[in-house]
Amino acid sequence: MADTTLIEAIKSGLKGELDSITIYSEAAMKADGEVQRFFLERAAEEKRHHDWLLSYWKELEGGATPSRNLAAEAAAQGTRSPMLSDEFLKRVGESQALSTAVAAATLLEANAIKHYAAAAEKAPAGPLRSFLESLSKWEARHYEELIRIQDESRRFWFDAHHFEPF
Length: 166
Known about the structure:
Helices cover 81% and strands 0% of the residues.
């Protein structure tokens, strides 16, 4: 992958991470309790992704070959899956704003998975490729969580909006 192509891939990732931070942060402002914590935690994770990408971008822009093992840092951070209690799902399902935030975040995570996987395939072997592969896997976990939240909160959405025969 040419350096300019790699830089563009990282810049695109930076934009995607900022979009995710915005979605999660705004959803957190419309929530409370465990739902608010979930969105705040996801915003913080996306901020870490952004900061890691920014670190690589600055190294590449400066002509350096990224050497920091951010893949290991990403793996060490991990991600905590929320307990999807009925109360959590009900709060999401009954709120049009939160349901919409989950739907939008799901699309952003799906795009991120594809973006980071494609960038990893083109990146030279080494720390940057490992990092991009780690990001793709991390975003896949977020995506799977959001799909579960969407699917399992749907019944509460229909109840709140008085759809029959639900």
